[in-house]
Specification:
mainly beta, 4-stranded antiparallel β-sheet, 8 strands
Length: about 160
C-alpha cells in the first residue's frame, strides 16, 4: 500500500506551512548573502551597490541587485554608522560594483566567491566600507567578506 493522494497533499501542506513559519530550512536553499555597509567617514554618503551574476552574458541579464543606500556619518559619540540588508541573494559567485553617488569617480569593483557552503555554517556576509584617511583626501571604498572554510588562503 503506497501513499495516497490525500496523504501526499497533507505532507506537502505541512512542509509548506512549517517552512513559511520559519520552522524548517529547505535542503535545496543554500546559504544566503548579507550586505553590511559601513561608513567610517565623518560625512554622510550615498552608496550605490550593483551585484551581477559573474556568468551572465549581458549586463541587463546579469544584474540581480541594485540599490542606493544612505550611510550615516561616523559620529564621535559612537553612533551606529552601519546599514545591513540580510539575505539579499543566494550566496554564489558575483561581480560587485559600488560607487558614491555624490562623487562618481569614487568607485570600486569586487569579485565575490562564496566560502560558507555548509548548512551548519553561518550565512555569507559581504562588507562594503567607505573610508577616508584625512579630511582633505577623497573617500575610498573597501570590500571584505567573512571566511568560513578552513581551506581559505590568506595572503
Amino acid at each position: 500500500m503506497g501513499i495516497t493522494r490525500r496523504k501526499a497533499l497533507l505532507l506537502g501542506g505541512g512542509l509548506g506551512m512549517s517552512t513559511l513559519s520559519g520552522c524548517a530550512k529547505l535542503p535545496f536553499v543554500g546559504p544566503q548573502l548579507t550586505l553590511t555597509l559601513m561608513n567610517f567617514d565623518s560625512e554622510p554618503h550615498s552608496l550605490n551597490v550593483e551585484i551581477l551574476r559573474a556568468e551572465g552574458g549581458e549586463r541587463s541579464e546579469s544584474r540581480v541587485f541594485q540599490e542606493n543606500f544612505k550611510l550615516p556619518p561616523l559620529e564621535e559619540d559612537g553612533a551606529d554608522n552601519t546599514v545591513q540588508e540580510s539575505d539579499v541573494l543566494e550566496s554564489r559567485k558575483y561581480a560587485v560594483r559600488a560607487n558614491l553617488r555624490e562623487n562618481e569617480s569614487v568607485r570600486e569593483k569586487y569579485l565575490f566567491y562564496p566560502d560558507c557552503t555548509g548548512n551548519d555554517e553561518p550565512d555569507e556576509e559581504l562588507y562594503i566600507e567607505v573610508n577616508r584617511e584625512e579630511e582633505d583626501e577623497e573617500p575610498y571604498i573597501k570590500f571584505q567578506q567573512n571566511w568560513c572554510g578552513s581551506d581559505s588562503w590568506w595572503f
